[in-house]
Specification:
alpha/beta, 5-stranded antiparallel beta sheet, 218 residues, 28% strand, single chain, 11 strands, globular
Length: 218
């Protein structure tokens, strides 16, 4: 899948990393030339410096062949313009846009070319799911000093872990569940907790990959 992400800030870079790890072809676009230069050279993500509100920049980034465009800047007006251009000019099949100010949420619909509007507070994994309809496990960050990764995974209705006790799930070596977020509230994980669809788990691991974590719960 070819994914174009407008906005290479913290959120955009996290999304790019997660989608690239899932073997998607990802291109980041950012108007900050210094930030774009800092990201250039990564083997897993392409980078284009320029204003994504300009059709020429989107075309240079590959909008004509993109399957998904994610407008993830911190400016709602830019995300709306980018979404409209993506849908109307480049016929991108799926457009996902970040909503920074909830008062502007009513604007983010098909009239502006937006297929899915995502509030800025939405967890990263949910945003990736909206973008691709496929990802359910995302590596959030690497704690270099501790030498561990923090990985988030979601329990879907199709997960084989549904109805099982947390203690029954065989985790990769060196991996622990740090918390289970249920109904928007983090809870202390206990072996006797029975997993439900919609649960989101934060795991800490020395060496497990996203694929290994996904396999444990799917």
């Amino acid at each position: 899948m070819r994914v174009l992400i407008a906005g290479a800030g913290h959120l955009g870079e996290q999304i790019a990393r997660a989608l690239a790890a899932a073997r998607n072809e990802v291109v980041l676009v950012d108007r900050d030339e210094e930030r774009a230069a800092g990201l250039a050279g990564r083997p897993d993500v392409g980078v284009v410096a320029g204003e994504a509100c300009e059709p020429a920049v989107l075309e240079r980034a590959g909008a004509l062949t993109a399957d998904v465009l994610i407008a993830a800047t911190d400016r709602d007006e830019d995300n709306l313009v980018i979404g409209l251009l993506a849908k109307r000019r480049f016929a991108v099949p799926r457009v996902v846009a970040r909503v920074n100010d909830t008062e502007n949420a009513w604007l983010f619909d098909g009239r502006w070319g937006v297929d899915a509007a995502i509030p800025a507070t939405t967890p990263l994994i949910s945003l990736v799911e909206e973008a691709t309809g496929a990802a359910d496990t995302v590596a959030l960050l690497r704690l270099s000093r501790a030498g561990v990764d923090v990985i988030e995974t979601a329990i879907t209705p199709r997960s084989r872990a549904v109805g099982r006790l947390l203690g029954e799930v065989g985790l990769p070596p060196g991996t622990v569940v740090a918390t289970v977020v249920r109904d928007g509230r983090p809870t202390v994980p206990a072996p006797q907790m029975r997993l439900r669809p919609g649960d989101e788990l934060l795991l800490v691991s020395h060496s497990a990959t996203e694929e290994e974590i996904r396999a444990a719960f799917r």
